[in-house]
Amino acid sequence: MTEDILTRRTLRQPAEPEAVNAVHEELEQLWDDASFVPDMDRMTFATAIIEAASNVVQHAVPEAQTPVELGVEINVRQSSLEARISAFGAESPGELNSDGTMPDGDAESGRGLALIRALVTTVTFTRQGATNTWILSKTPLQS
């Protein structure tokens, strides 16, 4: 049986720098409704979400002439946090660093995914049509 969602926040807008500010605002409202989530879990999960959303804004390449849109859905359950960060209308990101290790100090890319993996329990990636989605989850919550 799936645990009930206690609170949820969603947004979808053009993948422009202002979208990251909107994600910050959604997170602030989310934590108001989920005050039981410990501060450390809030901080690490929010950092992972902001990093993933920022990566979409900075690096997603449109698949066609339509600009990429950022989608964020965040669900809070009593014992878990989950976020879906989507790049709608984007090309495939290509080869992903699946082992989650930090790149060498001279590397110019790959640090974002490694940071996200360090902050959450699981990270999965799916591509459906022209949509790339990263699913971030954090369990169990620590008191």
Helices and strands in order:
Blueprint: E1 7-14, H1 17-33, H2 39-59, E2 69-77, E3 80-88, H3 111-119, E4 122-128, E5 131-138
Antiparallel strand pairs: 1-2, 2-3, 3-5, 4-5
Helix pairs in contact: 1-2, 2-3
Structure characterization notes:
The chain is an alpha+beta fold. Helix content is 33%, strand content 29%. It contains three helices and five strands. It has a five-stranded antiparallel β-sheet. Residues 97-108 have low confidence and may be disordered.
CATH class placement: Alpha Beta
Question: C-alpha Rg, in Å?
Answer: 15 Å
Computed structural class: alpha+beta
Sheet-strand content, in percent, reads 25-35%
CATH topology: Heat Shock Protein 90
Helix and strand succession?
EHHEEHEE
- Helicity range: 25-40%
Q: Shape from CA axes?
A: globular
Q: Describe the main β-sheet briefly.
A: 5 strands, antiparallel
- Taking the alpha carbons of the first and last residues, their distance comes to 24 Å
Oligomer: single chain
Q: Write the CATH architecture name.
A: 2-Layer Sandwich
Mind telling me the CATH superfamily name? Answer: Histidine kinase-like ATPase, C-terminal domain
Strand order of the largest sheet: 1-2-3-5-4
pLDDT < 50 runs, ≥5 residues: 97-108
